[in-house]
Description:
The structure is a single chain. This protein has helices at residues 14-22, 33-39, 46-55, 76-83, 87-114, 147-160, 164-172, 177-183, 194-208, 212-217, 221-246, and strands at 2-8, 30-32, 120-124, 139-144, 186-189. The chain is of the alpha/beta class. It has one domain (2-210): P-loop containing nucleotide triphosphate hydrolases (Rossmann fold), CATH 3.40.50.300. A 5-stranded parallel beta sheet has the order 2-3-1-4-5, sandwiched between helices. The protein binds dephospho coenzyme A and adenosine-5'-triphosphate. Residues 10, 33-34, 37, 76-77, 79-80, 83, 90, 93-94, 97, 101, 125-127, 170, 173-174 line the site of dephospho coenzyme A.
Amino acid sequence: MLVLGLTGGIATGKSTVSSMLGAPPYSFPIIDADEIAREVVFPGTSGYKQIVAYFGPKIPDLLLDPDNQQRRFLNRPALGRYVFGNDDERKVLNHITHPQVRRSMLRKILVNWLVRGSDIVILDIPLLFEARFDMFCGKTLVVACAPETQRERLLKRDGGILSEKEAEQRIDAQMSIEKKAWLADIVIWNDEDLDELKHKVNQVVAQIQPSKLRTWIEWVPPIGALMALLSLAKKYFSDTERREKMT
Ligand SMILES: CC(C)(COP(=O)(O)OP(=O)(O)OC[C@H]1O[C@@H](n2cnc3c(N)ncnc32)[C@H](O)[C@@H]1O)[C@@H](O)C(=O)NCCC(=O)NCCS
Ligand SMILES: Nc1ncnc2c1ncn2[C@@H]1O[C@H](COP(=O)(O)OP(=O)(O)OP(=O)(O)O)[C@@H](O)[C@H]1O
């Protein structure tokens, strides 16, 4: 099975590409890190409790409606405003959420391999390189665009709820697009319209299809496990080399 790590800068078009890959004619299974990051902080979970204990005293409007059991959800915009303006506090939030996101993603990859027998699974994860999740991916795909396109899309999104300063803070909270493009195996430049994007996605799909023979061999359990280990080791060394060259 090929695990394709899909990432990009914020608002460069990663979710748009992910929706295309998840829809016919491809219909690849998508594991979405943003969605999992929401699940692991659902009221009652340990992630939620840790966030409320640590950030509650610092962010007065952290909960949407603390008195209502049904609506005591996290006020995500308020938490976002706080952590995107403060690197140390964002690290605390990452420290609470990322281990659980990582575990859940690995579980979902296994289910796709063992239960569904998928040939390809897409990991849609904004912090693929920052959180070193690329280690678990056979190939990585970055959706990139020019900084001005990114800024414009981010400011327009969700009815324009972010101010210019908040948009800058969110962009600065991630590795730059150039670095991501340098680390990636494949890059899609998404500065044109959606038809052009569809065309590029189609070209990428043709490029990444794993061979039928390899997929079949992976089903022999010891060989499958050995191939997974070898591919992890290969990935680790090639990623480390690429990162060293980058700095
Ligand atoms: C800060 C939070 C509450 C803001 O929530 P909000 O609903 O406004 O944004 P959402 O979760 O939809 O994220 C939107 C985009 O912001 C960027 N982003 C999110 N978290 C981070 C982060 N910790 N560092 C850098 N960029 C991030 C990503 O590009 C993401 O696609 C939320 O993003 C969060 O809990 N982040 C920590 C978990 C995380 O790292 N998620 C990313 C996937 S692992
Ligand atoms: N080629 C395109 N032409 C026009 N609009 C686009 C194109 N690609 C993406 N967009 C729009 O840009 C915005 C950002 O795209 P998208 O949500 O896919 O970004 P993202 O990289 O997933 O962001 P995030 O990291 O926040 O999840 C969306 O409103 C989307 O509809």
